[in-house]
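User: Run a structure prediction on this.
Assistant: Running it now.
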Amino acid sequence: MEECRRMDTKVLGPDVNESRSAFTVTPRNEIRFGLNAVKGVGENAVEEILAERDKNGPFKSIFDLTARVNLRAVNKKNLESMARAGAFDFDERYHRAQYFSIEEDKNGIDLAIRHGQKVQADKISGQTSMFGHQSSDGNSNSESEPSLPQVERMTLLDELRAEEEMVGVFLSKHPLDTYRFEYEMISSHPLKDLAELQNLKENHAFQVMGIITSVNERLSQKGEPFGRFTMLDYSGSFEFAMFGKEYLEYKSMLTKDYILVIKGKFEYNQRNDRTYCRFQQLSLASDIKSDTLVKSLQVDLSMTDIEQGADLILTNILNQYPGKCVVWVNLIDSVEKMDVKMVTRNGLEFGQEVLQMLDELNIKYTPRLDDKWKVLLN
């Protein structure tokens, strides 16, 4: 997964219409998880699904699948595991929660199995439905399909938690996606770099954001409680250890699935040749006020930028996204070796959309964060 991220190769979750048994490369040069990678889906189920799909084409829905496969080979547990992993997400009429919602003591998986059993029994007995019929290739008529119950979607975290449980990793999204802008603004280091930073035998400050994936409370030899917890961001993970008064102060925040911002410092002690992690501040990501996170923004425009109309684009962005962030424009003349800085009349709502626009336009900018989130790196 790390290598795929480094190469900017997209990794897709399992899909009953595109996955094989193992990893495959799609026609779009993306990597697709295999059905065998889904926990709770046996080899017999995978072979049955692939054989039917290869013979009669893609499945239109979970109802179409249960009407066509041998339900002794593909059972309820298999279907539940695939639904939790997102293998039926190709059917955009439904979302994952609908496969598990209860209606008349039956959930969505039960409805699909009952539908499949009915279609297959009718086919064997030669009967046809008043509202539909079996096609020549053995596919069920979608008009006779029941509908999954209408329920609220899973939260992003619940959906990803189920995905991780089934395939071991987050695939469709990342738990930090809700806070992507805040992550990019606040993080001084990716979490995977902290191990190297800790081994430098120097003092280094850091500020990181991530989701807690595991927490363990332990007792020291003196009988004092301390905690070890692992955090995950887009780059990877890092395990922290917290002791003494710091642990007692922040213990309640060290909870699995909490998304935290940690401001801290690695302090190297030459006397015992050890590096200690000091925690200066722990905050919930949900407490960040995104509209005041960036106090001001400096945009650097060269004469070439202006000739290409970057100043007009910036004016349009300011008009389209008015807000509280003060914008300074720094006009740079490299020939005359001078620059002029001026403040714009209107403020800006500096968020993820504006960030992406400036990046795509290759406009150089420097955000200045609210004092609470500033980090003195050395």
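The chain has 13 helices and 14 strands.
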